[in-house]
Amino acid sequence: MAAPSNKSEIAYQRENELLVKFKGIVQSDDLSKEEYRAAIDELLKSYTTLLSDTKLLTSVGDRLQRKLKGANMLLQQQSEEIQRVNETLQLTNVELKNTIDELTKARASRKAQTFILIFVVVLMVATEVMEEFFIEKFVDTYFTDWEKIFQFMIGLIPKALIVMLLKPIEGYTERYFIRQAQRDEAKQKSEIQEKFAAS
Question: Which range of residues forms the domain containing residue 135?
Fold first, then answer.
């Protein structure tokens, strides 16, 4: 508590000395009229100087206050602008992530469709070969003409099964390729984070 009081006394030492001096003059009864007048003149000069200093300090303080207020307003505007940019970046980031997810799904779907197409071609060739070499010879050997119609129907069964299995197989392969793409993406992110951590 004593330290701030001492600092204050040091800062206003001259004013405190004048105050003590003029209190002594006011309390003194044995001063002449001229001495009072000289004391009042000195008091007026000191007061004028003090008032001038106070006006100057107030003016400087007001100027600094206005500059500080302007700087605070500028900081507030910049803070709001940064917040708007940050929100825009977050929205862009979400849109980018959605686009990447859609691209990943599209690539997985394209791979799945290619896989299914190859699978269908192989199965169709296999059923035709099986029908040509096994079913026709078996029916020709053991069945009559009306039973050849039955042979045709039996030949349609594997093809119908292939058609019915296409959609589930495509869905499974598409999910497989999506999971594979997600694992690859996670691996790339992990490698990038390790590079940043190392540097």
Answer: 9-198
